[in-house]
Write a structure and sequence with these properties.
single chain; 2 domains; alpha+beta; 439 residues; two-stranded antiparallel sheet; Alpha-Beta Plaits
């Protein structure tokens, strides 16, 4: 389903999809990495603010406790008040550090340490007041405080180690997922790109093969390229082009090699199209008079020149009337066809005759032009005098519904041609409806 959907996209959209896949996965990897770095930053900040500070505080407590012990011991021996003052200041430092440690511990249990220090402080105050306190009792009380400090220090060390392990695992997980997402995006994009490249190359190969087949004349070849993108559209254009080339080849084979005008197949196709479209048009049948006698006297080369020039005259006359749908064909020999808008039939006949009559004298010798005729024999072998070449045009106006096929029109036009050839010189007749005609 995905493959089918992708192939129905245009080339630009396919490229956008492939780049979008890369972008989505890379952005996801980047966002995940940023979130992971943020988490790690908070963990490191927590370690720096709390655990490292707590570790420093336990060291401060231990040092303060040693100072307290030395001050108490010296006061007990020397009884000097300055040692009591030193002890008092260090006790305040110990209390402040302990309070700070409580805040940094996040609710950790420091009750044993506080209790042990209170017991020690009570014994020292009794000593400072003059009571006798044995060294053993003082020493054990101090040891209990130191032991409590070590317990707190050990707990903080375990907490710090756990946090460092968690940070390391988070770092490894973030790096793994970020790399995995990035590689997944690149891999998926490469897969899509591979599919697209294969599709492009396969389609282009089919188009290349189709081009060779069409060039070889196989106009019915189908490259079997699915539509949906520009290559599919190009394939459809190729097939339409092949159909058109096939038609043009048929027209080319059907066309007269002398005049290059379309032949019978094209003439019939043009008439049938107008019959299907139910439009009015004039079918003009043109025939040269006395052409055989000219051919007998001047030879086929000069006669061929006449036919070629006549085709040019007819084509140019029709073209001057600016009918985009007009058609000029060469049936064969000295017979031509003009299919034109019925309203332009009269103008076409008149212009063709005028141009033809002006052109013909130049193809005769001075003697024949002067006499206005040539001597020859007719098709029955009887000697006769033939006038100069002229052209007869039989135009049949075809209204929708009057005729069913091109054959009917050709038959009707041939019968009209026999009527116009009865008159001498170049003439035309336009049959508009039964019994009505222009001559």
């Amino acid at each position: 389903m995905l493959r089918s959907g992708i192939f129905r996209l245009s080339l630009v959209k396919k490229l956008i999809v492939s780049f979008a896949l890369i972008g989505v996965f890379l952005i996801t990897a980047l966002v995940y990495a940023i979130i992971g770095l943020g988490t790690m930053h908070r963990m490191v900040d927590d370690i720096a603010r709390n655990d490292l500070s707590a570790a420093t505080a336990t060291i401060t407590l231990r040092d303060a406790m040693l100072t307290l012990q030395r001050a108490a011991g010296r006061f007990q021996i020397l009884k000097q008040p300055e040692f009591r003052e030193i002890h008092r200041r260090q006790a305040e430092t110990f209390q402040k550090t302990l309070t700070r440690l409580q805040q940094q511990s996040g609710g950790a249990d420091l009750s044993s340490l506080i209790s042990a220090f209170n017991v020690y402080s009570t014994l020292v105050e009794r000593m400072f007041s003059g009571d006798v306190v044995s060294d053993l009792v003082m020493k054990r009380a101090a040891e209990r405080v130191e032991k409590a400090i070590e317990v707190v220090r050990g707990e903080h060390k375990i907490s710090l180690d756990n946090k460092l392990v968690a940070a390391s695992e988070r770092e490894e997980r973030t790096a793994t997922w970020a790399i995995a997402l990035a590689l997944s995006g690149v891999t998926l994009a490469l897969l899509v790109a591979t599919i697209l490249v294969y599709s492009f190359s396969s389609s282009i190969g089919k188009l290349q093969k189709a081009t060779h087949r069409i060039a070889a004349g196989d106009f019915d070849h189908d490259p079997h390229i699915p539509d949906g993108d520009e290559i599919g559209a190009l394939s459809q254009d190729f097939m339409r082009m092949a159909v058109r080339l096939k038609e043009l080849e048929q027209l080319s084979l059907d066309a007269s090699p002398l005049t290059r005008l379309p032949g019978n197949i094209a003439i019939e196709r043009s008439i049938n199209r107008r019959l299907r479209e139910k439009v009015s048009f004039a079918m003009c049948y043109l025939d040269l008079d006395n052409f055989k006698s000219y051919n007998d006297r001047y030879g086929y080369i000069k006669a061929s020149e006449i036919l070629k020039k006549t085709g040019e005259v007819i084509y140019e006359s029709v073209k001057r009337l600016n009918d985009p749908d007009a058609f000029v064909g060469h049936i064969g020999g000295d017979d031509f066809v003009v299919i034109i808008d019925a309203k332009l039939a009269k103008a076409a006949c008149q212009d063709i005759i005028a141009r033809f009559d002006a052109m013909i004298p130049s193809y005769y010798s001075e003697e024949d032009r002067a006499s206005g005729a040539i001597k020859g024999v007719d098709r029955y072998g009887v000697p006769r005098v033939f006038p100069l070449l002229s052209i007869s045009i039989a135009a049949l106006t075809c209204q929708p519904g009057n005729y069913a096929t091109a054959a009917e029109i050709a038959t009707a036009a041939a019968s009209v041609k026999d009527r116009v050839k009865e008159a001498s010189g170049s003439n035309y007749i336009i049959v508009r409806e039964a019994g009505v005609s222009d001559i």
